[in-house]
Design goal:
The complex is a heterodimer of chains A (about 500) and B (about 325). Chain A is about 35% helix and about 25% strand. Chain A has helices spanning about 50-55, 80-85, 100-105, 120-135, 150-165, 180-195, 205-215, 235-245, 300-305, 330-335, 345, 355-360, 365, 375-390, 405-415, 435-450, 460-470, 490-500; strands at about 10-20, 20-30, 35-40, 65-70, 70-75, 85-90, 170, 200-205, 215-220, 225-230, 260-270, 280-285, 285-290, 315-320, 320, 335-340, 425, 455-460, 470-475, 480-485. In chain A, helix 4 packs across helix 5. Chain A is an alpha/beta fold. Chain A has three domains: about 10-250, 3-Layer(aba) Sandwich (Rossmann fold); about 260-335 and about 420-505, Rossmann fold (3-Layer(aba) Sandwich); about 350-420, no CATH class. Chain A has 18 helices and 20 strands. Chain B is mainly α and about 325 residues long. Chain B has a single domain (about 50-330), classed as ABC transporter involved in vitamin B12 uptake, BtuC. Helix content of chain B is about 70%, strand content about 5%. Chain B is built from 14 helices and four strands. Chain B has helices at about 20-25, 25-45, 50-75, 85-100, 105-130, 135-155, 165-170, 180-195, 200-210, 210-215, 220-245, 260-270, 280-300, 305-330, and strands spanning about 160, 170-175, 175-180, 250. Chain B has a two-stranded antiparallel sheet. In chain B, strands 2-3 form a two-stranded antiparallel ribbon. In chain B, a hairpin with a 2-residue loop joins strand 2 (about 170-175) and strand 3 (about 175-180). In chain B, helix 3 crosses helix 9, helix 3 packs across helix 12 and helix 5 packs antiparallel against helix 11. The longest helix of chain B is centred in the C-terminal third of the chain and has 29 residues, at about 305-330. Chain B is globular, with a radius of gyration of 22 Å. In chain B, about 45% of the residues are buried. Classes of the chains: A alpha/beta (about 500), B mainly alpha (about 325). The interface of A and B includes residues 363, 373, 387 and 397 of A.
Chain lengths: ~500, ~325
């Protein structure tokens, strides 16, 4: 390696950040060097985004120190970070759609005239110059940002970084929404930034990209830094092993259940933009895991199945009969229910009592035939399922929004069980909930399967997916990459490879 | 799972007794205000307490209150209809037009009510099918519906409604009890049952609180909203029949500015302008309060323009009240 023996521009040490019930970061360290790209690698939930937010002044660390050029700094706001020369380019760029390219580049530090008004001419000229430097001369400074492609928005964000002479550029999954050609252009630009001595933090799940562009890597797992080094010294297998760790040994309350007859069959399922050629089947008593990276299309498939969106092609059979699902009401009637990932927005109605949340899809059963409510039946139904799920609440009239995340999740699950479904789809069922509730949800899933329900579980957590599933569908970029039987021989590495698109023996 | 473990906790239905909750509720406070106004009015004028003047006092709010009942449901669901007064104008114009062709009393009533229903369907279609925001749609149809009235009528007025038609706005069911007032009470009971005692009403609340979660729970959000727009149009059509009958004439400026008074009534009744909460008893009491205030100001010979200032101020006051309360509570916490 010909890397210069330079000093890091920015050093993070002992950074700890805790949210209620969750330890997002625990004494992590990170260094970025001038003229080098450092890849930050880790599973979803490993703490990468939290670290980025800490570096850009959005979050304040509970403990630890951030030093820029050897000098300890505090970053109380995004603006403070920006002034320290730290800029970030996000997956979906956080710029202002309704403003012009030049305004976006110079927002907050526009060139001024003698009268302290914005010097529009100088701003446009400088913007044109900056865009030219990064090979983006095709973008006119006067264009509205919303008219640009995502790739071009990234270029504007880079120009913004250069406009303040930022030393540190953070790129959080910048390639997620780009085409192959655009990715190549972005890499050329990163090479240019490297030559200009910028320190770049590059976050990506895609190993081919990391090996193409990065000089160093840092691996996070469960909020801790578990490894770092030079990319050229390290094999892909090594990095995958660091990501996965040995946390799969955790005990899961998975009971062995005899798999029954096929209850759901999806074939040739396609959507114009989100997924294509989805085929899978689901049996009574089975827990079918869906693993993949964020954006692999797992939730989109399930939401189509639940009638939220319409697929363009394909068939769904329930117990052998073709099912036409026009909306969630149809899906519920046919026995398919969906526990959404966005619990607060799509799952519970926070300002209504628990009882009304649980009874909502079952009102037809608790009311009389003419559609009049019967409160006694409603409370009885809510109590039955709240008790089954061991809900911790002061009363059934308590507003659902006052419950903890875990108990809110129990309310959503109770709501669906009360409809007596045949297929229950759980989308990231334990995301953001405390350990105790997590275990309760896992135990309950096992029990449901044992009672003959068919369960689909989307999860981005390897231990969970491997601890709970009978079979695992791995999705990548809107398609099914592979379907695996979950037995003792299955290795986590296989799943990670399939999800990230690393071909066997590539390393 | 049927074997409930001994330590399974019992979760009570509710902690506060329903009676306590009712006493501390907004409608209870409104009731106190209404009683206070009633007493004040009886001091202001020696004639107020006579049965006939009490009966007269009801006429100035029952038509608006009938619309407010449906509007309450619409606002709870997170939508609004500002075209209600224009619907009255159009429905009244259609009745007047039919009158010119010799249509009799039953026909006039049907035409008035159906015009209202069609206007509501039109609003509902634009909001739920095309996904347009209701505040914009109904400001548009507000001009549109009344514009048609102006084109048909110009500066003319339709007069000469048959005497039998006068019953709806001027007739009495028993002694001093007017047909309008009885109709309002019957509608109030029906809407109370619809909102507070049926699955449909529950869906209205859920949609107003969180339309996304409602959809994810299998509630047919668009259908419920469409029905609510139709109901509001229908009630506006009924109000048009009552008002046209009471005035025995139709002018294009009929019911001008009523949408504000209807919305004020609804919000004063404790319906959140942001949707999601409210009650029919609150709206009914608010209707009485508005009637008492208008009548009281009339007894004091306050001119109409001051009345409109008062209505405007009241609207801002009741919308601001819960927000100011919350600010105070948060500052204390």
């Amino acid at each position: 390696m010909t890397l210069p023996m330079s000093k890091p521009i920015i050093t993070l040490s002992g950074i700890t950040k805790t949210f209620p019930g969750v330890r997002a970061l625990h004494k992590v360290a990170l260094e970025l060097y001038p003229g080098e790209v450092t890849a930050l690698i880790g599973e979803n939930g490993a703490g990468k985004s939290t670290l980025v937010k800490t570096m850009t002044g959005i979050y304040q660390p509970d403990e630890g120190e951030i030093a820029v050029n050897g000098e300890a700094v505090s970053l109380p706001s995004p603006h403070a970070a920006f002034q320290r020369g730290i800029t970030a380019i996000h997956q979906e760029t956080v710029l202002f759609d309704e403003m012009s390219v030049a305004e976006n580049i110079f927002l907050g530090h526009a060139p001024k005239t003698r009268f302290k008004t914005v010097d529009w001419r100088a701003m446009r000229d400088k913007a044109r110059e900056l865009l030219g430097e990064i090979g983006a001369g095709h973008i006119a400074p006067d264009e509205r940002l919303k008219d640009l492609s995502i790739a071009n928005k990234h270029l504007v964000a880079v120009a913004r970084a250069l406009s303040v002479d930022a030393d540190i550029v953070i790129m959080d999954e910048p390639t997620a929404a780009l085409s192959f050609k655009e990715i190549q252009d972005l890499f050329d630009l990163i090479d240019l930034l490297k030559k200009n001595g910028k320190a770049i933090l590059f976050i990506s799940h895609k190993f081919d990209e990391i090996y193409r562009i990065a000089d160093r890597y840092t691996v996070f797992r469960d909020g801790e830094m578990v490894g770092k080094g030079l990319i050229s010294d390290t094999s892909q297998d090594e990095i995958v092993r660091l990501m996965v760790g040995r946390s799969v040994d955790q005990v899961f309350p998975k009971t062995q259940v005899a798999i029954g007859e096929e209850i759901l069959k999806v074939s040739g399922y396609c959507h114009p933009t989100e997924f294509a050629d989805i085929d899978f089947s689901l049996h009574k008593g089975e827990i079918l895991g869906f693993y993949g990276l964020v954006g692999a299309g797992r939730s989109e498939v399930m939401q189509a199945l639940f009638g939220i969106t319409r697929p363009s092609k394909g068939a769904v059979r329930i117990s052998g009969e073709v099912a036409i699902i026009r909306g969630p009401a149809d899906a519920i009637e046919k026995g398919i229910v969906y526990v959404p990932e966005e619990r607060g927005k799509q799952g519970v109605v926070t300002d209504l009592p628990i009882v009304q949340n649980i009874s909502l899809p079952s009102l037809d059963r608790t009311s009389n035939r003419r559609g009049f409510l019967r409160l006694v039946e409603e409370f009885a139904l809510a109590r039955e399922y709240a008790t089954r799920l061991d809900l911790r609440a002061a009363s059934l009239s308590q507003h659902a929004g006052t419950l903890s995340g875990g108990n809110q999740q129990k309310v959503v699950i109770a709501k669906w069980l009360a409809t007596q479904p045949r297929v229950i789809i759980l989308d990231e069922p334990t995301k953001g909930i405390d350990i105790g509730s997590k275990a309760a949800v896992h135990a309950f899933m096992s029990e449901l399967a044992a009672q003959g329900l068919a369960v689909i579980m989307i999860s981005s957590e390897l231990p969970e997916i491997m601890g709970m599933s009978d079979r695992i569908v791995v999705m990548r970029e809107g398609r099914i990459a592979t379907v695996l039987d979950n037995n003792d021989d299955l290795k986590a590495e296989v799943l990670v490879r399939a999800a990230a698109g690393i071909t066997e023996k590539a390393a | 799972m049927t074997d409930v473990t001994p330590e399974a906790r019992h979760i009570p239905d509710r902690l506060d007794s329903p009676l306590r909750a009712a006493i501390l509720s907004w409608p209870a406070l409104l009731l106190v205000v209404a009683v206070g106004l009633f007493v004040a009015n009886s001091f202001l004028s020696p004639y107020f307490l006579s049965p006939w003047s009490l009966s007269d006092a009801t006429f100035n709010f029952t038509e608006k209150a009938i619309i407010a009942l449906a509007m309450a449901l619409l606002i709870i669901s997170g939508e609004i209809d500002l075209s209600v007064a224009a619907i009255i104008a159009l429905a009244s114009t259609m009745m007047g037009l039919a009158l010119q062709f010799g249509v009799g009393t039953p026909g006039l009533v049907v035409i008035g009510i159906l015009t209202g229903l069609f206007c509501g369907m039109f609003n509902g279609f634009l909001v739920t099918r095309l996904g347009l925001p209701s505040i914009v749609v109904t400001i548009g149809t507000m001009s549109f519906f009344r514009g048609i009235s102006f084109i048909v009528l110009g500066d003319q007025a339709f007069k000469g409604y048959p005497p039998a038609f006068g019953f709806f706005g001027q007739g009495y069911v028993w002694w001093v009890v007017s047909f309008e007032f009885v109709l309002f009470l019957v509608c109030a009971v029906l809407f109370y049952v619809l909102l507070h005692r049926t699955n449909f009403g529950r869906h209205v609340f859920v949609i107003g609180n969180n339309p996304m979660a409602a959809r994810f729970s299998g509630v047919r959000v668009e259908r419920v909203k469409f029905i609510l727009f139709c109901l509001t149009g229908l009630m506006s059509g009924i109000a048009a029949v009552l008002l046209t009958s009471r005035l025995a004439s139709t002018r294009p400026s009929i019911a001008l500015g009523w949408e504000l008074e209807v919305v004020t009534m609804v919000v004063l009744g404790g319906v959140s302008i942001l949707g999601g909460s409210g009650s029919i008893p609150g709206v009914v009491i608010a209707a009485f309060i508005m009637g008492l205030v208008t009548f009281g100001l009339g007894l004091l010979n306050v001119p109409g323009i001051v009345m409109s200032i008062f209505i405007g101020a009241l609207l801002i006051f009741v919308i601001a009240l819960p927000i100011v309360f919350r600010m105070i509570r948060e500052r204390r916490a």
